[in-house]
Amino acid sequence: MSVWTEDRIARLKTLWSLGWSAQRIADTLGEDVTRSAVLGKVHRMKLSLGRSPAPPVISPVTAPKGPRRAPGRSGRPAPVRTSARSGVAPEAPAFGLATILSVRRCDCRFPYGEPGAPAFRLCGRPVARGVFCAAHAEIAYQRRPQSAEALMQLAGLA
Fold first, then answer.
1. What is the 3-state secondary structure (H, E, C) of the chain?
2. What is the pTM for the complete model shown?
3. What is the mean pLDDT of residues 15-21?
């Protein structure tokens, strides 16, 4: 006999959608349900991993559609290259789009808020340079002053 009754499955779906951990759900469902059983059931039911409720939207921001590689290569968008010399920084989103659990390798990791806070988010837009989108790369990667005079000013000695 399976440990997964209709009632337990319904409770699993509800608790998973609320963002509960697999261990906490297993503890709630009873002694004969383990963390691994919960994760296996979630996988078989194809429940979403990005299960936490969406953060409040401060302003509607959508990620720009950049050029993509041909299907079958890696499936991730090609990096959007911008010139740091143009002097015009692309517009950054007003609020983070991704969480620490939903950000992918090709997504911008510029932080919004304090790490550990419930509202902490990452940018999540497509990467242009390093681990940042074009707008955040302009902020994070700045050219070093080349002249000795500029270095003295930077050091506070001039």
1. CCCCCHHHHHHHHHHHHCCCCHHHHHHHHCCCCCHHHHHHHHHHHCCCCCCCCCCCCCCCCCCCCCCECCCCCCCCECCCCCCHHHCCCCCCCCCCCECCCCCCCCECCCEECCCCCCCCEECCCECCECCECHHHHHHHCCCCCCCHHHHHHHCCCC
2. 0.37
3. 85
- Cα distances (Å, whole numbers) of residue 113 to 41, 117, 122, 140, 158: 34, 7, 9, 16, 35
Which residue matches tokens 């000795």? Answer: 148
- Residue 29 tokens read as 């469902």
Using the predicted structure, report yes or no on whether residue 138 has a pLDDT greater than 70.
yes
Average pLDDT over residues 2-14: 88
Please compute the mean of the pLDDT values over residues 78-96 and round it to a whole number. 54
Among 94, 92, 105, 106, smallest CA distance to 139 is for 92
